[in-house]
Amino acid sequence: MKFANNILLIFFLLGSTLFLFSCKKEDGNTIIAINSSEKIKIDSLQKYKEPFRPQFHFSPEKKWMNDPNGMVYYKGIYHLFYQYYPDDIVWGPMHWGHATSTDLIHWKHKKIALFPDKLGLIFSGSAVVDIDNTSGLGTKENPPMIAIFTYHDMEGEKAGRADYQTQGLAYSLDEGETWTKYEKNPIISNLVLKDFRDPKVFWNETNKIWNMVLVAGDHAKFYTSKNLINWTFESEFGKNIGAHGGVWECPDIFKLKVGDSNEEKWVLLISINPGAPNGGSGTQYFIGDFDGKSFKTTQKDIKWIDNGADNYAGVTYNNTPDNKRIFLGWMSNWLYARNTPTKNWRSAMTLPRELSLAKINNNYILKNTPVEQFKKQLVSEFSKELLSIKPKQKINFTYGNFNQSEIKFKAASKNLKLVFSNEENDSLVLNYDAAQKNFSIDRRHSGIVNFEENFGKKIHTTAMPNIISETMDYQIIMDWSSIEIFLNGGVYSFTEQIFPNKPYTKLSIQSDEKQEIKNLTVHRIKGIW
Ligand code: FRU
To answer: Which residues pair with 492 in a beta bridge?
Structure first.
């Protein structure tokens, strides 16, 4: 066994931050030990400290959650409703759970907003603030908050009828605290389409009209309304375009500027299950034009908002300040959502992300990155301007908090491998293959994977034709049971669940080529609960 040939204890002050780490060399590899300013303390008996409990992502206090619903901002508050089953940690009769936040990071749990009734279970949908009281359900002085959702009639489904999904409306006159179902529900029904759900409603400022998009199996349908109650069918989109490996679900549509130009394009999000590139659920998008009545695109290829396995049913906020387009997805996949090894509660949302459009290689790309507010959660633990890696050399970090950290750096667009591991021999491997221009996530040995056969079956590999720069920006955000990776400011993003037997305490950065890692930072992420 060789002993370290040099050991250096380094203290230095940068601004007001004290970094403490030691650095040594062993077998040609560099070892950097980063001191953690706070230890991860898992405790099954303490709420929000249970094994795998997300520390800075939204998860319900207890029981089952799936899609985000009714995301609307009003009077300084971000409302998040969600598909919720309060009696078990598997999917069951759906309610709308409710939480609020002033910064999209810290959340307050609220009472359940919508309960199933004689028309059915409360499936996914959206919410708006009817500022001009077009619905007549409030007053101009006290505008109603309006939720439009899908009723799923279990009896109808069991009886083999086709008309068991309809759209219902509920309103709140106290800013989302309490809700009343509209007495003449449902507001939209149909007799023939079994899958007919997940309405996204928004105010179209150009046309001065309410718009709705919902999904019907293999396509989307567009509607207009003057009062949110009476809806006119306008057009449909998608029967012969995009991915069709499964049912279309949870649509959203919004306009964004293309980069810094004056060009504007509409983005249509469509979740699909199954049929995603890594199996199971995923969210595709289309870029095109929308005139308030119909959506058109010349797009030929299939595009995915996230290339990891666990970002589904994501939609965006209505009414946000500064017109920001804020997205939240459900951090799971219907393939194994009901089997993940958590107790008391099941699943979490992705970090809130800001969406933007870019044009790369003459191709429109929807980028997503964590919202600005997230930076407030970061505590600096380590930084290094330059780390040179020789071919086959490894830089090995040790740090107690990788499962609650952000790692950022810039590297040459050359081969690079990152391996997170722990003393239990769990390892999570991220790999950029420059020649193939692809990125892969190998969670086959990342921890507990055997709760369902698909979870740890394959390496997830994504081709990345839109990496065209000489350098790559990496941002890696890890919580107790998830990893989110953003490359080049979110041109590509990857979200995956992981269930390590113990937190990862080692990170090895390696390459078979000469590499330079620049502006490396490691931050601890403060918990929010
Ligand atoms: C998507 C979805 C929606 C439906 C809801 C039911 O995950 O299947 O289409 O409204 O979940 O919980």
So the answer is: 487
Segment 38-93, tens digit of pLDDT: 999 999 999 999 999 999 999 999 999 999 999 999 999 999 999 999 999 999 99
Residue type present at position 50: E
Q: Which amino acid is at 130?
A: D
Catalytic residue among 67, 130, 252, 442: 67
Nearest to 431 by CA among 414, 446, 454: 414
User: Dihedral, CA atoms, 270, 276, 278, 281, nearest 10 degrees?
Assistant: 70
Contact 231, 240 (CB under 8 A): no
Look at the domain 63-350 and name its fold.
Tachylectin-2; Chain A (2.115.10)
Q: 204 CA distance to ligand 1 centroid (A)?
A: 25
Q: Which atom of ligand 1 is nearest to the CA of 83?
A: 12
- Give the three-class secondary structure for 373: helix
For residue range 268-289, list pLDDT tens digits in order.
999 999 999 999 999 999 999 9
Task: Please name which of 300, 285, 434, 301 lies closest in space to residue 367, comparing C-alpha atoms.
Answer: 285
Tokens of 83: 């598909």
- Identify whether the C-beta of residue 17 lies closer than 8 Å to the C-beta of residue 380: yes
- In ligand 1, the atom with minimum distance to the C-alpha of 250 is 9
- The reply to whether ligand 1 has any atom less than 6 angstroms from the CB of 250 is yes
CA atoms within 13 A on the CB side of 299: 26
Report which of 472, 451, 449, 468 is spatially closest to residue 459, judged by C-alpha positions. 449
> What is the spatial distance between Cα 126 and Cα 149, in angstroms, rounded to a whole number?
6
pLDDT of residue 26: 76
Q: Where are the domains of the chain?
A: 4-41+376-525, 63-350
Query: What whole-number distance in Å separates Cα of residue 398 and Cα of residue 419?
Result: 12
**CB of 524 sitting under 6 A from ligand 1:** no
Q: What HEC string does 397-457 produce?
A: EECCCHHHEEEEEEEECCCEEEEEECCCCCEEEEEEECCCCEEEEECCCCCCCCCCCCCCC
Options 2.60.120.560, 3.40.50.720, 1.10.600.10, 1.10.10.10; which CATH number does 4-41+376-525 get?
A: 2.60.120.560
The model carries a pTM of: 0.96
